[in-house]
């Protein structure tokens, strides 16, 4: 039987939560680069014991070396796997421009998602339970039922979630703030087809993809809003072939619908 804590000697392991937006970035990097890897859906109650480095998800472990932090992990993957599709081009200026967009994704778009999902009112309760359902179905060992039931309350009190919600744009109602972010992302596509008007996807495309796709695929309330932005949907369709492969960016056990493609 496979040990729950010992990573494979060789090979690549992604320590993740199914609904972590930062881990989902890295999952998409790995799929795009066609790297053979194993996701390890960590139990939030055992982070200290099971995570090889630090206290935050994601962590990638390659042949015994572990690193945290989604964007630095992306750069490391390009270094370690230079012959598979590159996340960033060589040109310094182009890299810089793409990393700035990734920075907006990590520090504006993702904090906004922590406000949108769960959201407010009844959505807060139902999406809060959805979060605990997904966590319980995917994390090793699952979650006790009491914790699952209390998740909508717990999530409000988790320090890193509070921090991210505080830096989100709180000046607008949730739905309007979400559409503002959609439009700001669409602006960053430039003339398309991919981010910054590039002909092929790069690191920020892969960082952004799950921020729209993950909530939709797992059936969060309010996630259908993406269908109201045709340019966003066209870009999601274009991205589809680049994030295929296994293990899928959303585990089958919690996928309730496919994105139109
Ligand atoms: N800058 C990090 C942020 C990672 C992060 O905030 N991860 C969350 C899960 S989505 C986490 O593990 N939080 C637990 C904590 O901060 O204690 C990255 O880009 O990977």
Topology record:
Elements: E1 12-16, H1 21-32, E2 37-41, H2 47-50, E3 59-62, E4 65-68, H3 70-80, H4 92-116, H5 121-138, H6 145-157, H7 159-167, H8 174-188, H9 203-217, H10 230-239
Parallel strand pairs: 1-2
Antiparallel strand pairs: 1-3, 3-4
Helix pairs in contact: 1-3, 1-9, 4-7, 4-8, 4-9, 5-6
The structure holds glutathione.
SSE succession:
EHEHEEHHHHHHHH
Mean pLDDT value: 95
CATH architecture of the largest domain: Up-down Bundle
What fold name goes in the CATH topology slot of the largest domain? Answer: Glutathione S-transferase Yfyf (Class Pi), Chain A, domain 2
Number of helices: 10
Which strand order do you get reading across the main beta sheet?
2-1-3-4
Given as residue ranges, the uncertain stretches (5+ residues, pLDDT < 50) are 1-7
**In one word, what is the shape?**
globular
How many domains in all?
2
* Helix-and-strand structural type: alpha+beta
Q: Could you describe the largest sheet, including whether it forms a barrel?
A: 4 strands, mixed
Radius of gyration: 18 Å
Kindly report how far apart the N and C termini lie: 38 Å
Q: For this structure, what is the CATH class of the largest domain?
A: Mainly Alpha
What percentage of amino acids are in beta strands?
Answer: 5-15%
């Amino acid at each position: 039987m496979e040990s729950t804590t010992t990573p494979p000697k060789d090979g690549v392991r992604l320590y993740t939560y199914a609904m972590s937006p930062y881990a989902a970035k890295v999952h998409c990097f790995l799929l795009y680069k066609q790297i053979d890897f194993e996701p390890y859906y960590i139990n939030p109650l055992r982070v200290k014991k099971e995570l090889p480095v630090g206290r935050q998800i994601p962590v990638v472990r390659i042949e015994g070396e572990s690193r945290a932090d989604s964007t630095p992990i992306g750069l490391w993957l390009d270094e370690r796997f230079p012959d598979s599709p590159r996340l960033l081009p060589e040109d310094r200026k182009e890299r810089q421009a793409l990393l700035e967009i990734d920075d907006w994704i990590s520090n504006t778009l993702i904090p906004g998602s922590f406000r949108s999902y769960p959201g407010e009112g009844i959505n807060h309760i139902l999406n809060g339970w959805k979060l605990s359902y997904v966590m319980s179905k995917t994390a090793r060992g699952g979650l006790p039922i009491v914790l699952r039931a209390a998740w909508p309350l717990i999530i409000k009190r988790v320090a890193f979630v509070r921090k991210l919600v505080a830096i989100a744009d709180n000046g607008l109602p949730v739905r309007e703030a979400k559409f503002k972010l959609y439009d700001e992302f669409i602006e960053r596509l430039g003339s398309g087809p991919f981010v910054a008007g590039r002909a092929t996807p790069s690191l920020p495309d892969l960082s952004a993809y799950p921020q729209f796709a993950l909530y939709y695929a797992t059936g969060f309330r309010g996630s259908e809003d993406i269908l109201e932005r045709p340019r966003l949907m066209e870009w999601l369709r274009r991205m589809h072939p680049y994030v295929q492969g296994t293990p899928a960016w959303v585990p089958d056990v919690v996928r309730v619908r496919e994105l139109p493609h």
